[in-house]
What we know:
CATH superfamily of the largest domain in chain B: Metal-dependent hydrolases
Number of strands of chain B: 18
Strand order of the largest sheet of chain A: 7-6-5-8-9
Shape of chain A: globular
Oligomer: heterodimer
Largest interface: A-B, 27 and 23 residues
Distance between the termini of chain A: 29 Å
Strand content of chain A: 5-15%
CATH architecture of the largest domain in chain A: 3-Layer(aba) Sandwich
Helix content of chain B: 25-40%
Mean pLDDT of chain B: 96
Low-confidence stretches of chain B: none
Helix content of chain A: 25-40%
Distance between the termini of chain B: 33 Å
Mean pLDDT of chain A: 92
Number of domains of chain B: 2
Amino acid sequence: MTRHLQLTESGKLKHFLTIEGLSKQLLTEILDTAESFVDMSEHQVKKVPLLRGKTIINLFFENSTRTRTTFELAATRLSADVLNMNIATSATSKGESLLDTIRNLEAMQVDMFVVRHALSGAAHFIAQQTAPHISVINAGDGQHAHPTQAMLDMFTIRQHKKQFEGLKVAIVGDILHSRVARSQILALNTLGVTDVRVIAPKTLLPADVTSMGVTALHDMNEGLNDVDVVIMLRLQKERMNSAFLPSESEYFRCFGLSETKLKQAKSDVIVMHPGPINRGVEIASSVADGSHSVILQQVSNGIAVRMAVMSMAMQSQGGAA
Amino acid sequence: MSSLLIRNGRIIDPANNIDQIGSLSIKDGKIAELLSADSNATADSIIDASGQIICPGFIDLSVRLREPGHSQKGSIASETRAAAAAGVTSLCLPPDTKPTIDAPAVVEFIKDKAEKAGYPQVYMLGALSQGLAGNDLSNLFALKQAGCIAVSNAGNSLNNLLILRRAMEYAATHDLLIIYRANETSLSGKGCAHEGAVASRYGLPGIPAAAESIALAQCLELAELTGCRLHISQISCKQSVIKLQQAKKYGLQVTADVAIHQLHLTENDVIPFDSNYHVIPPFRSQIDRQYLRDGLANGTIDAICSDHQPHDLDAKLGAFPETEAGVASLETLVPLMLELSQQHGIALNHAIAKLTQQPANILGLAAGTLGIGQAADVCVFDPNANWQVNRQNWHSAGINTPYWQQNLRGRVTQTIQAGQLIFKLENPQ
């Protein structure tokens, strides 16, 4: 169903809801398209007219400054008209249903929804319900997927490591609640990374996590051994309140990324983080700001990758100029 | 004196150990006689059941009628009609109506409406706690007097073990059967899918099987302590089957049922984010399903119910976790029961017993058999009829089923309650 929903009959990207069901070829096409947008950000005029006349609504049912901003910039650089709607504080809290909100916005002749929602499956639901000419980009749904984040991470990995085959990648932290990790694992597996390790306490790993195509480890020194890429996940403060963890300090001691622990990795390891960072909780400042860190590159790559996904989705609809 | 003859079918009556081709004679609303296939008896009206199965009308331990209180989802009229179309002649209505069945006036209201509808017999389950809130007991004796056949807290748990203990003691005082769904809420939380590989993959909050089996174990211990009559409803996992088996082995008087769809679907069948698969307890693993099937075969699980929960379209429109749980499952009961016997090694007479004789025993009803002199509650179904689950063939107001638009085999053609034809299939294919 997912495949059928995301792709046009000719196999082009129509919606971007999850990595699941997408081919290596398509993911590579996203990365290659993003490549062509990267240089553009260094130009004097940072715009291309690909989506001129198109209207994109950033539909955020959950607050997020960073993701919304990069989507907004991406759309603007493609010359689309962008409207930000922060629904977390508007219609749905007045009892309007998700579907009613979508129907109303649809009536305003929009071309694309960029959706963030606190519940898993929300983007799928919207994609199923919207008019066929509207594309839906998932900007994070519950604990399910955050495919553009995963693709910007893949883009950053490819920038530094050139190819995916043979890489060893560690994802560290709250895998249980992380839509980012789920999408990263799918993307890494699809692109040919066979050694993906997740490192976390058992309280923060989903049931049967190994069925997702990863090795599960509980020890940083073992898990980081010889890796090419370390992806640190943000630890939400509320995890301390529901017996997932005893304290921030104990978490940092066991699973925080320090310079000492990083020595287990390859000498050219890159350190990534989807942001925002909790310094001293999941990562030491010296590592976050250190020579292995590519955290800020991830942010700039995010714009190019989102431009790629948006333009591809509009093109498949026959819409892009 | 009106008479009815159901002719030349395969009569299966587990309670009397009958499985033979013959005819069933009904007089004055009661089973009059079992005749051989070559009998030339006649009657006021005759049903030709050649190639079909004649069995006792089904007794369904859990059917939501959605009235009063949820009329957008269905009504007593629409859902009892769906029950009749499913071959059900008696059903239990859980108390989570609105208002809840925690006062005799509500019982009276539903009784009147159900009698007017004229389809299956509706037996109400009184609310064990006031408003099903799990804190204070309802007036259980008054509910019993008003006609409730048992008491239940529907899908809700009681708030702590002390309340559960007292509820059991008090119910036992009035010899009331408690029908209870075991769920430890601190473990199930806001989960909406079985905690396992599939929920992990799709980021859906999980419900561990232990949320059920832990609560079940506590329940069994308290039943032993208090001596109450206990029936566990809608179990879903391996450990629940094991715990029940142990309890029964050591002599505890307890019974249990399983919802029909749990015997067929697992987490692996769930189409991602399709809310028609949102059901509580959730579809579990293949191992759990095997234990349920085995438990049914070896008698650990006494009965099958439909756990029918019709919904309006809106209830199922949304992101999966926010949609309402439940399947409209009455009308797929017969095809799914047949599949159990044809493909999963449960003898047909055994499967029929789980829907007739056994629930009658659990409830203490003189029903569920075709014994001479019994009220003539009869279901006639064609085990070979192919049909599609669609609007045209559907009676429930809810179309929320994973089987929508699928082709199934086995269909009820006539349902007779107390000698009256309450359902007849109009367009048998």
